[in-house]
Predict the structure.
Amino acid sequence: MTAALTIALDAMGGDHAPDAVIKGAAALLTRFPQVKYILFGDAAQVEPLLRKFPALKDRSELRHTAEQVASDDKPSQALRRGRNTSMRLAIDAVANGEAQAVVSSGNTGALMAMAKFVLRTLPGIERPAIASFLPTQKGETVVLDLGANVECDAKNLVQFAVMGANLAHSALGRHRPRVGLLNVGVEDVKGHDEVKAAAEILRAVKNPPFEFVGFVEGNDIGGGSVDVIVTDGFTGNIALKTVEGTAKLMSSLLRSAFQRSIFTKIGYLFASAGLAMLRDRMDPRFYNGGVLLGLNGITVKSHGGTDDVGFASALELAIDMAQDRLIDRIKADFSGAFAESLVKQPVSGGAAQDEQESGVRAG
């Protein structure tokens, strides 16, 4: 029997809160009957919505707070003044053991700052990373970092590889994930010092919990040749936004092509079923959910502008990670024989800059 889980929800985070939060949670009730929720938000807004979903109300606890993090709050402001906000209280619920994960559609920078301050990083991990999923020809691929760390050294990239492999196991069911480092070419001599040094470390470690395949290029992102793609936050965020922009361009071009004449409109009728499948395959709502990996608690960032379908996807991701005990798996990797082998490897390459306080949106 599946163990009971409790998920903390920031009911006030996002453009469509609390409506999207409540409807998204209600949509998963049948699939995950073992899950209960602690909702943090304005009772005057949340309670009427809960009454529309009696089954969700029975499995939820609503904790009132009138305060919330604004979308334009700077991370430092949110950290100093946001102790009683719905976002902070939801994170606190994970820190004190009341919940096994937190999901929020609120301000990304504030969520990262608060979660890092409250939950702290796991032993052996220097920096948390933002990870998410991209559709490929063979399914989905984990990509990290997507903006938390603008520059990374070799040790950071190696740690991201370990965390990303565990996420692929928990969310995608890949028992021995294939991991690649994003680079300007697949040859060993290409790339900057940090990437080449990270590759040397990953090739040398003994019995890694994943298969390191070496370097991959940008055109491999959609190919699905690997389960995890590792890069720094600067490159990763550009890659993510490029993929999102390309998907929008394809949609626009297809729409224009089928509206050109009466014949293309007739063609659309014949192709509508296939186009519907393509639309669903590329729908960003089904890939919603950026994971703040490396913290001592599962933290999922849902896109701020998503609807209930997108929020349900982020919530499902949090549930999958909690059920697979992702945090325990990462801890084990950084405390066992693999970790000892990892520590013994020499680290070369330039040092990374300190993390920049930014509100980069990852999903």
